[in-house]
Amino acid sequence: MSEAITRSAPSQTPLLVLDQLKKYYPIRKGLLNRTAEYVKAVDGVSLNIVPGETLGLVGESGCGKSTIGRSIVGLERPTDGRILFEGADISKLSGSEMIKLHSEVQIVFQDPYSSLNPRKTIGSLLAEAVKVHRVVPSDKVVSEVDRLLDIVGLPKTSKSRYPHEFSGGQRQRIGIARALALKPKLIVCDEPVSALDVSIQAQVLNLLKQLQKEFNLTYLFIAHGLGAVRYISDRIAVMYLGKVVEIGPTKELFRNPKHPYTRALLDSYPIANPHLRDRERIVLEGDVPSPVNPPSGCRFHTRCPMAQAKCREEEPLLVGEGDHASACWFSH
Amino acid sequence: MYNYVMRRILIAIPVLFGVTVINFIIMKMAPGNPVDMLVNPKLPAAAVEAKRMELGLNAPAYEQYWNWLKNLVLHGDLGYSMITYEPVTRMIGEHLWPTLLLMGISLILGLAIAIPLGVISAVRQYSKLDYTVVTLSFLGISIPNFFLGLGLVYLFALKLDWLPTSGMTELGQGGSFKDVVLHLILPCIVLTANVTGRTIRYVRSSMLEIIGQDYLRTARAKGLKEVLVVNKHAMRNALIPIVTILGMEIPILFGGAVVIEQIFSWPGIGQLTLSSIMSRDYSTIMGLNLVAAIVVIFANLLTDIVYALVDPRIKHSYQGAARS
Amino acid sequence: MNLFKRYLGVRQQPEADLIAIASEGEGEPKGAFWRRFRKHKLAVAGLFVIGIMAVCAIFAPWIAPYHPSAITDSFGEGPTWSHLLGTDQVGRDVLSRIIFAARVSLSVGIGSVLISAIIGAVLGLISGYFGGWIDGVIMRITDMFMSFPYIMLILVVSSIVGPGLKNIILILGLLGWPGVARLVRGSVLSIKQTEYIKASVALGYKTPRILFNHILPNATAPLLIYATSGVAGAILDEAALSFLGLGVQPPTASWGNMLASAQSLTVLTDKPWLWVAPGVMIVLCVLSINFIGDALRDAMDPKNRK
Q1: Domains of chain C and CATH, by start
Q2: Global confidence as pTM
Q3: For A108, nearest residue in chain C (alpha carbons)
């Protein structure tokens, strides 16, 4: 817990706290399917999110960022650790308590083509969410659906149409409207724009920003690259192989990345400022090691240009001054 | 590979056990019993009771099942027919070969006709030939066995008098090779028509799917002749799902045998089944069902193994660890 | 239990292409379906044939020239103007019996498939959605039932419960579900992975709502196709059972039991009108249904959409 507190953003009670969250998937082997090993998708992650902020969660595919998002909305059961929402542990809730939680925490998925039931009209998709949670009295459901469509910038006539009649960007708006239907406090955005065309991405990001202001929403924004995250996040956490390796305010993290992995991610993006182009760049080589047997010591040492003997032996902790912290022996 | 085969064998065991239990339960649900059929209603009750004791019908159900299973596992003994008092294993043994002969030949013939037709039909999709083949295959699956059988008997045996109508051999001729073949022709045509009808559609659709795939387009793009593309690249991959057909056909053929053997008086399992059902010969029916189920389970097991041998994807997915 | 899951995952199922229809299915304008269906001329003809048969079955008492078991004044006569398809040895009008027998075949086909579709769909939904040991148990039972040669099992059971129309429908219905269960389970497994189902879970919907309101509607297309061929199969099975004397019993007319008389050589050679007509009816009926099923498959397959 102590680690989590040092990581908290300025002096506000956090809305969501992840405390040493772990999610292991068993691998079964042999004739009798004994669990021989585990895929350590998330291996001890502690994070805070304060009301009204956007925390970006970044990492290569397979680093466990989506697993964290899915655990928060209850699609996965954590193996260990706690998820505190407004101070209460929600990781071990029973069915009915979980259902209540769902109206507080929602998720927007990556693929707008598969996240809407193809056999339901937009109107019935939204009305169902409103009705099941009794957000408004039953005679107001229709006007509530209209209001939701209006909020995300879609015409009322969309109600009687089916998902396949909409473009990717429009579908993502519908997905956002559906998440908003329950009036949640926290929305997990699981790579919401990475399946969209670049021109559409900005529109959806702007919509998310505008909704945040209007309804005082809190976002956990998951992405595999830094582009969209930089635009929308107040703070960013960088993950590598199931662990957070660096966390800090967006500007701070971009100006002064402390972890070599963060630097590598930044360097893989084209730089707009020509004066900065000369600096030495870190280019990653090799593949991400298997999360079944993560490397000893610092998990990044197999690909790190700065790795020393110490990195192979001891695991660095996530430490730093103020709200910018990193897990590297050589960043301080 | 070893793991994969062992896994399948391990799974087959509980299924086999379950099959014997279901079998037994069904038999126990039966009203009436062979004693009622056998004994003269004028016999005194005591004599009927003695007969029941003798046949073991008074013991509790689980004990009857246990005795039956014990005998089967320890001695390969399926008990005695309640009607003819012959050992069930011997009765089945005598009738099994004619059925397997009939089924085997029909299956081989059916595949030999269906695979090339299905492939050609797929290669020339939407051609006249394709329509003809597909329509004929629908006819093959829509004609009831017995109607086709009767029609053939009417035409070839009664009107033209070319072929014998019933049995496996002519009485008093000792069953020469030629004699058996002549008797085989009509029932074989019926079963083959069925197998062919089902198989053509399966071959055609799996072939069509493969033809549309990218690696075949690549093969064409690099300038391979169409014949070569089809024979070397498409056929091999289309044959993989065909292995499945073998597994599916065997239980269907067993069923078809009951009807066909009845029409052609073929001395096989089907006829034995029907006659023991009519005379409520429980021990024989149980034995027959069990043998049929074992054949089916083994056919499935074999299918799975052959599958693994021809499809490298399965082999590999069992070597590496997979996420659950 | 994972053992079972993987066993079924790897084994190539013949219904795999049907399952793809469930998972790749997308909504589309309603007219498009009929446009593709109409391309199958034989299926349209089949629809027409089945329509006529259904009318005959429903209005049989008004259409048939005679009562099906009424004994007329001619015995075993060939076709004449007063008996278009002749009479049987007892003196009943063959045409009238054929018209009434359509009732038997169609009700067996539809009734038994309805029963097995309901049982199979519920078990398949449960099996696919919950997975784990529930899935293992249901699938093992399915395997056991599928290990018996189908016709043999039906024969044994019908000899036990006794023949008759109601029993035949029940037997075929109660023994026909394993195929449906496997198909629905496969569809559910692929639908379950979609994000819209995950979204329903995240929206806090209760499991029955997710199962019946979101998963089942997406699994109906393959189920419908499978059920169509199931109807054809059930009609053939009833005919075979009645032919062997274990199905619908005379005097009730069924195409199958009308053919049974042809087991006698004299009928087979000298009175073909007694067995050719009912046989042709079975073929026509089953063939039409199979054509319709094939057209449905093509029309519903998302791969055929442009």
Answers
A1: 30-66+96-304 (1.10.3720.10)
A2: 0.80
A3: C199
